[in-house]
Amino acid sequence: MNQKTKVPAHARLVAAVAALGGVLFGYDTGVMSGALLYIGNDFHLSPVAEGAVTSMLLVGAALGALLGGRVADALGRKATLIGGGVIFVVGSLACAMAGSALALGAARTALGAAVGLVSIVVPMYISEMAPPAVRGGLVSLNTLMIVVGQLLAFLTNSALAHTGNWRLMLGLAAVPGLVLAVGMFFMTDSPVWLMRKGKQEEALQVARRVGLDAELVASTSGDRRSSREVRAQERQALRRPWIRRAVLIAVLVGITQQITGVNAIVYFAPKMMNLVGISTENAVYTSIIIGTVSVIACWVGMMLVDRIGRRRLLSMGLAGTSTSLILLAIAYRFAETDVRASWLVLVLMALFIAFQQAAVSLTTWLLLSELVPSQVRGLGMGIAGMGLWVANWVVAQGFLPLVDAVGGPVSFLIFAVLGAVALVFIRRAVPETTGLQLEEISGDMERRYAGE
Known about the structure:
- The protein is mainly alpha-helical.
- It has one domain: MFS general substrate transporter like domains (Growth Hormone, Chain: A), CATH 1.20.1250.
- The protein contains 21 helices and no strands.
- Helix 2 (20-30) packs antiparallel against helix 6.
- The radius of gyration is 21 Å and the shape is globular.
């Protein structure tokens, strides 16, 4: 975030409270990396079953992401995030009390629906409440909270490693879920949603409080369409070539975040370290290093994103992740025969995470909130979010079987190649959105693709 730009206090408060959803997102995706080491022993899971239990959260997340935008359009951003916090509480307690792998998978699926919903609605809400000059930094606060949540999960796993109490590891997610629900109760809805519901005066008041252009907000007439009419008009809007292209680009940007293999590292770093000779308890502790690097790197990215631009930062990140993965593949090959090389594996995992969190993951969530036009904002962000979570599921479900089939080094090389392909796509298809109003971004996309 550009430190020279003054950010209204209310905009900061709104972003901070909403970003608590990122803590939940991060905790629930990160906690399995340590808990899985003990769940597998208790329930006698095969590598395929371990991947399934981990990835069931992602199945629910894909559905939650698809529906999240529409729920937020119908009920409001505020009510949707309150509901997401409540589901987190209930789902976390259900995970902690699961008596079988099947019950745990079912609870993780329900919890995943809340993760997917929050992952879409939080950046949507913050982007609608943030002035353009600082939108990158404020929306990226959500990404910072995701990695903070993952670090909290890793610290919790490490603190409980000597007990093997995976139930407590999973159940503690109920705490931030409760904080999110209570915190959002005191927030206001976004001017975009308020205008759509015909609440013009309230929308203008909120716009002024968060530093938005009140005249621009006022130029948008209140929208009192029924839910059925909204869905019909969204489907009609998707027939317009430029809107369809904008949504498709957003979908591919979301997939780009996952095909770098980031969640193979986040979910399975302790497992991979365990495979090269690190003890189970020490393998859990290595996640703290990964989590700490993630938080620091994400903070650095927040300082840069409004200065050097989304597209440039994302390109730099993809080049860095692919290079790190190539080096990681080489180091992992040595570590398979000499445990003394395992420290180099950990260093290169941390380097990969630094590029990923400072640039790739941070800009991905930001671009999703910026690229989708207002005409299809709920549906379009839902589709883009579902694409991201489906890709996440494929990685989580397939990584351990892939390692079992071809080995760790080849698996890392596959991700490096995919990252290079993603870099070509970003350079050719993704526009720069830094410093532009959301309406200006849509106008640029329309000029580019209206004739297709």
